[in-house]
Amino acid sequence: MPPTNPETLSFLVPGLLHQFGNAFLSIQGAAFLIAEGSAQRSREAVSAAVQRGAAGLDLMRFLAGESAPAAANGVAVLERLVEVIRVPLREAHHRLTVRVAASAGSAMVDPSHLVVLTADAVVRLVRGLQPGVHGTVVIEAGTPNGTDLGVHVHFESAPGTLPFPIAVSDLPAQLRSLAARRGAAVQCLPAVAGVALRFAFEPVVRAMEA
């Protein structure tokens, strides 16, 4: 499976390291609790830290080109990815807003496609900004046709700043090319100041079962 764009992976490294660092510190803190006789609290803390670390490893595997073993809840995967994306965006002086429609809660997707294409869309969008432009990257998730998970990634300029043009005219084509190389059932549509992605569920499941 083709990996993500190397520039996308390098952009996300600070977020991945931050996630792993938090997991290690949580386990270290749990060790101190064990020494104080709080075994139950320690087990819960270690379990939560291990789960966060495992989620980070899954993201790294997907970004490196590894296929997902099974379909997963799209919103849950998106939430884990957002935790990683938020750190480098903050370092680049951008905010991140995530809006998830209630209808998207049960949508199932191939998590590897969702991670790679959404991360690539965000990074390409940010790289296309004019120097000195700051604002908010917005990720919206819903089910536009009642079944498939739809992800809309766009940029909103900070209040009081001019809406400078964003070089994203070729972004849908770039993502379509990446999706095609991965064999992903994804539609990449142009949107205002961004791109809209739709991750189809049924074709992904059939491919996994084949």
Topology:
Elements: H1 6-35, H2 39-63, E1 72-73, H3 74-91, E2 95-100, E3 108-109, H4 111-127, E4 135-142, E5 149-157, H5 171-182, E6 186-191, E7 194-199, H6 202-209
Helix pairs in contact: 1-2, 1-3, 1-4, 2-4, 3-4, 4-5
Outline the structure in words:
The protein has one domain (6-209): Histidine kinase-like ATPase, C-terminal domain (Heat Shock Protein 90, 2-Layer Sandwich). It is built from 6 helices and 7 strands; from the N terminus they run ααβαββαββαββα. With 210 residues, it is of the alpha+beta class. Strand 6 (186-191) and strand 7 form a beta hairpin. It has a 5-stranded mixed sheet with strand order 2-4-5-7-6, with helices on one face. Strands 1-3 form a two-stranded antiparallel sheet. 33% of the residues are buried. Helix 1 runs antiparallel to helix 2. It is 52% helix and 19% strand.
Q: How do the strands of the widest beta sheet line up side by side? A: 2-4-5-7-6
Order of helices and strands: HHEHEEHEEHEEH
The helicity comes to 40-55%
Secondary-structure arrangement, i.e. CATH architecture: 2-Layer Sandwich
Total helix count? Answer: 6
**Mean pLDDT over all positions:** 77
Count of domains: 1
Tell me briefly what this model is.
The protein has 210 residues and is of the alpha+beta class. The chain has helices spanning 6-35, 39-63, 74-91, 111-127, 171-182, 202-209, and strands at 72-73, 95-100, 108-109, 135-142, 149-157, 186-191, 194-199.
List keywords for this structure.
210 residues; 5-stranded mixed β-sheet; 6 helices; disordered C terminus; single chain; alpha+beta; 7 strands; Heat Shock Protein 90; two-stranded antiparallel sheet
